[in-house]
User: What shape does this take?
Amino acid sequence: MGSEELLVPPAPPRVPETEWIGYTPYPGVLDEAFDDRAEPRAPWQPFFKSLQHLGLHELTRRWDEAKHHIRENGVTYNVYGDPRGMERPWQLDPIPLLLGSAESSLLEAGLIQRGRLLEAILHDLYGPRLSIARGLLPPELIFANPAFLRSCHGITPPGRRYLHLYAANVGRSTDGAFWVLGDRTQCPSGAGYALENRIVLARMLPDAFRDCQVHRLAIFFRTMRETLRSIAPHNRDNPRIVLLTPGPFNETYFEHAYLARYLGYTLVEGGDLTVRDDRVYLKLLGGLQPVDVILRRLDDDYCDPLELRPDSSIGIPGLMEAVRAGNVAIANAIGSGLMETTALLAFLPALCRELLGEELKLPSVPTWWCGDPRAREHVIAHLSEFVVKPALAGMRMEPVFGGELSREQRAHLALEIRAHPSKYVGQERLALSTAPVLTGNRLQPRHLVLRVYATATGDDSFAFMPGGLTRVSASPETMVVSMQRGGGSKDTWILSSGLVSNFSLLRPPGTPVELSRGGGDLPSRSADNLYWLGRYAERADGLTRILRVILRRLIETAGPAEVPELPALMHALARVCARPGDRPIEDYTGTPEAELIAVMNEAKRPGSLVSGLLSLARVAGTVRDRISTDMWRVLADLGDVRPSKHRHFPGTNGDLRDKGRSRTLSTELEWLDRTILSLAAFGGLAMESVTRGEGWRFLDIGRKLERSLYTINLVRHTLVQVHGHEGPLLESLLEIADSSMTYRRRYQGSLQTAAVLDLLLADETNPRSLVYQLAALSDDVERLPRDATRPGRSPEQRLMLSVLAELRLADIDLTAQPDPTGFRPLLDALLGGLVSSLPALSDAITQTYLSHLQTSRHLVGTEPEA
Assistant: This one.
């Protein structure tokens, strides 16, 4: 689904306000917006009138704001193999696709009938299989099909519904007829993106949206919620419904998080669920809670590694047993992916007549299954006019356009088809219709495919979404419409001939609600991710602060020789970012600039600042349904640290001359300053804007624990051994800990080690001190959920009591005293004990609350132990 962003120059060249819409449709294909005389079609006339009134410059200004909204809200689509990966913004065009009421009525009637037909076929194939017995379907198309799941045979889904959300990809031919290019019955994607497209376009073009009388989408999603609630086998008044995602690396993960938040469901991964006594449970911090309905975005065979795909690490072992027992409803029902088999399109007309007693209203693009001899010879004889596709699911093959092959290539393809005929289908190549997209300051045509949706209703029928996800080709030359191949998307406006409903899933102002402070149930995986979100944020903050102090000193002096505290600071930096196998950083003290730049910018170097910020952004992506929009924007900005964009440093080979060195290091210092401000914004939002629930508590535990470890290591590796120039070093430590002002206000005179240690370790009024962090950490630990009936303190409570007592009882004056060799043994013993206790605290918290997150052990490929 997404590729190159549709960019509009910030200052487009002047174009007469009445001429910029100038548009030339492609000859020989249907254009959705303009007729053969290049005049707007009737449904589009109010829209183009509104655009003319708006003007190009105002449109581009609003479009710039809309793109900014898309980027800031983290609307993404992961294009596999793209260097930007999950950072790639969703590709949306500001010109929607408009469909009149007559056209939408045809689509609605055809899609509803088609949904009923596919459901009837599923009931038959996973039941009596009469369609095979009567010769309506060839048996090899089913029994040899990887999408046919024998584990599902004989299972009747709740409410006898297989398809709770159904989608079809629809194209339009030159005569204006709609043709189905493929059905999506397994876990149709795109509905969430359609909703986001609608929100963006409705805000950007409110006058055009109102003038065109566009149907709203909220009623469709309300129907979908009611349907999912109705199929719950238990607790129908208030069922627990979860949305099952493969995880943050899935191409449409944004949509999963977005829909979960919009519909009010808990977003879960396979590891969040477990099966006990044929019931599915959600692992919460407070224990296990039963799940009634799973809205899945996981392919059929990945759902249960015990019965379906043994190598799946993202499914739920035992799920099929819970389904068989009738204790959980899955939407869509497992096994429904069978209807996505391309070869089935050839048999749907006859099946519709047999099973529904009706003619197919919304036909498929003409399809021939090559397993049938007559169809095979027809395809081979007309290869130049056909698209050859895999007949069954799971076959790795891109569609082959026969007209683009040479004579020799077509001959080779014909031999392959004859050798394995049942593996291939031939489809007529549809001349897809076009619609205008905004490129620069002109509208240009692009081919399109429309994905339309229907949701099951209580009367064994379907409700049609008055909208959809329109996808457009990447360039004028191609008819391949794929987001993975650089295509874009459009909002789809279905126009009403009457009044438009104003219904919204959001409660209108003044609606009475039952007061509640619930909604705090937290899956353990989310707790684990929030905990590490806090740790990564503090780790980046600590590293950034020590780098900033060192850079400032190098910039403000003539060179390393004038920074006597540099060796101690570089030694401390080494311990902050060191990883096993790293070369000792002291080797670089002769040319520290090059090493500092490497520590900041080498993304592949473990412990570097860039790698830490990218890790922070990745873990933030796993909890995007748990954090606010503002916090997401801050974290997205921190993750936008592509080395190729920001990090070009001439002279980093150890020969930095004064002018180049100052310019380069000053640029780096500015980046560090911005990073600290962003991290401070994240910390402020975490403290001031997050409800004090269990999620916030684990985020805060991660932050406090990491900051405590950082402070201990910083002091331990700078002050345990007395240095000849301790004054400048003490000043640097106060700056790193953001405590210089407090020290000057209190002491005003020369720097003293005991006073600095007191401020950094034992002052409970200093929010940067170690004891302050540990006290707050102790309070968080006390408030963690636990079994109140069990006597005594938990392991983590006992550890916190011991750690705090040890620090509070320490005599800072004695601790600051060195022995005759310049070593501070009491300080070393104090910090050494603390630095071993805090990892033990982390382990105890993990053992008590997060240990079940370990991946289930698979039986496949394991050898018996000797």
About this structure: Residues 1-18, 584-589, 642-663, 853-866 have pLDDT under 50 and may be disordered. Residues 692-850 form one domain. The two ends are 49 Å apart (CA to CA). The chain has 28 helices and 19 strands.
